[in-house]
Amino acid sequence: RGNGVSAVVEGSGMLVMTLFLSREMIAGRLTPESMEELGRSEAGRAEKLKASPPLLQRALLAPYLLGQAFILRGDVSRIQLGAQGADFDRLFRDPPVSSEQLLHPEKYWDDAKRDLPREVKLPDLCGTLGAGWSQAGRGDLGEMNLAILTSPGAIDPLSPEATQPAAWTNEAAAGWGGDRWSLCAAGDRHVTILATLWDTPADAAQFDLALPAMEGRRVTRRGDAVVLVAGDAPERAGSLAAAALKALEPPPADSSR
After folding, report:
1. Which of 33-47, 60-74, 132-146 has the lowest mean pLDDT?
2. Which residues contact residue 240 at a Cβ distance below 8 angstroms, ignoring those fewer than 6 apart?
3. CA dihedral of residues 242, 187, 215, 248 (deg, nearest 10)
4. Which residues pair with 195 in a beta bridge?
5. What pLDDT was estimated at residue 1?
6. Whole-number percent of the chain with pLDDT over 70
7. Would you say 193 and 244 are in contact if contact means Cβ atoms under 8 Å apart?
8. What is the side-by-side strand order in the sheet with 225-231?
9. Does the structure show a pLDDT above 50 at 13?
10. Distance between CA 203 and CA 179 in Å, rounded?
11. Which of 21, 95, 148, 242 could form a disulfide with 4 if both were Cys (CB 3.0 to 4.6 A apart)?
12. Which residue has the higher pLDDT, 43 or 108?
């Protein structure tokens, strides 16, 4: 939810700035020379951003660029009207809870299509690696960051595409349902376990097939779940993946009468 609030706040700022610039240009108070100077200044910042890792780029840029489109309900033609007061009330009262909702605004704004993240149960499996191993971190990635695994690449913040959600995701990540990662560490050795759930088994298969093969990476799929294990204990990757998949299985139905 913290990311959702950030997107609302930063997106609001971008929306106000965009409205101000467009109205100043229409009124003739913003000259072409001023716009050119602003463009050169922003281009310098953009080059530095493009040199940073894709994950960092997205963390820095998404709240601004995606937030603005999200506040406009995914329809940039609404920009001259701005966001409605009732929309802002709703956004701050009940902010978006996933990057999926930012990338697909209808999954937030349209109650019939509203899509909340699925709970992903990933227990601490680090101890099964042996003595000295412990969990060093855990969290989730969301659709926007999982897209990096299947289609890495920089986002050019000055390009027209940067404000379009489609530039931040792809078909392989679009069926995201939920995810959880765990980082295990023992000295300078590390193992990452990523457990993901998808809307359908077909979505899980699409994500699985889109992941490039890499040395030290093990990918296992069962139904609508995909587990990825990578790092410095390849001999244990299979057992870790099996344990993570088992944790993702729904509990058996209660057959008691």
Report:
1. 33-47
2. 125, 128, 129, 191, 193, 229, 233
3. 20
4. 180, 227
5. 44
6. 72
7. yes
8. 134-139, 176-186, 189-198, 225-231, 217-222
9. no
10. 14
11. 95
12. 108
For the record, the structure tokens of 233 come out as 């204990």
How would residue 35 be classed by pLDDT, with cut points 50, 70 and 90? very low
CB 242 within 8 A of CB 236: no
The pLDDT score that the predictor gives to residue 65 is 77
Residue 19 clears pLDDT 80, i.e. is over it: no
Token pair for 94: 């009940």
DSSP string, the chain: -HHHHHHHHHHHHHHHHHHHHHHHHHTT-S-HHHHHHHHHHHHHHHHHHHTS-HHHHHHHHHHHHHHHHHHTTT-GGGTTT---HHHHHHHHHS---SHHHHHSTHHHH-TTT--PPPP------GGGG-TT-EEEEEE--HHHHHHHHHS-----TTSGGGGSGGGG--TTTTTEEEEEEEEEEETTEEEEEEEEEESSHHHHHHHHHHSPP-TTEEEEEETTEEEEEEES-GGGHHHHHHHHHHHHSPPPP----
Cα–Cα distance between 17 and 25 in angstroms, integer? 12
230 forms bridges with which residues in the sheet?
192, 217
71: which 2 tokens? 């506040």
- Of the candidates 256, 118, 235, the residue with the CA atom closest to the CA atom of residue 176: 118
Token pair belonging to 185: 């560490």
Phi-psi region of 153 (alpha: psi -120 to 50; beta: other; left: phi over 0): left
Task: Give the pLDDT band of residue 50 (cuts 50, 70, 90).
Answer: low
